[in-house]
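Human: Cast an eye over this sequence-structure pair and say how the chain folds.
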Amino acid sequence: MNYQDTSNEINAHRLQILQLREKVRELQAAIEPQEVKDYAFETPDGAVHLSDLFGSKDTLLMVHNMGMSCPYCTLWADGFNGIAAHLEDRAAFVVSSPDAPEAQVDFKTSRGWTFRMVSSKATGFAEDMGYKGDEGLEPGISVFRKRERQIVRVSDTSFGPGDDFCAIWHLFGLIPEGPDGWQPKYKYP
């Protein structure tokens, strides 16, 4: 197939993807919220509750990060750092991981991250939200709403190579061979 014919077919598929995303958004808007408890997380400044993480916003985007031992979770967090201010203009944004608060501060500083982090280590948060299974922790994101004294989860999804939450996969997807076995690293030459 020549370049233009293939490009036209690819664009038709991309339009279908956009239409499917709209259907997903419609379903998401109609979902029955799931009530959650007001978990207490650790920070370098002491305990903070889930309800406190909203600040002045009624919506909280909370990343379930596997911590500094995971180069993939680091890749996602590196990308979030670049858009954190934009996200925080619309909703509160926090990254949770099982790492101790002091370790989070050191790792966050080494990466130049500016977003807030909390430690979920001493909580059942990851497991209760479905991000800890038999194989251990799994990455993803939950979206919470605060309604007076009630906190509800209104959506969530997991992260993985090729997902919509890390631009690198889509850019690599433009290369005919795709990622071609590429794996994220903490540092590059």
Remarks:
- The longest strand covers residues 150-158.
- The chain has a mean pLDDT of 95.
- Helices lie at 3-30, 71-90, 101-111, 125-128, 167-172.
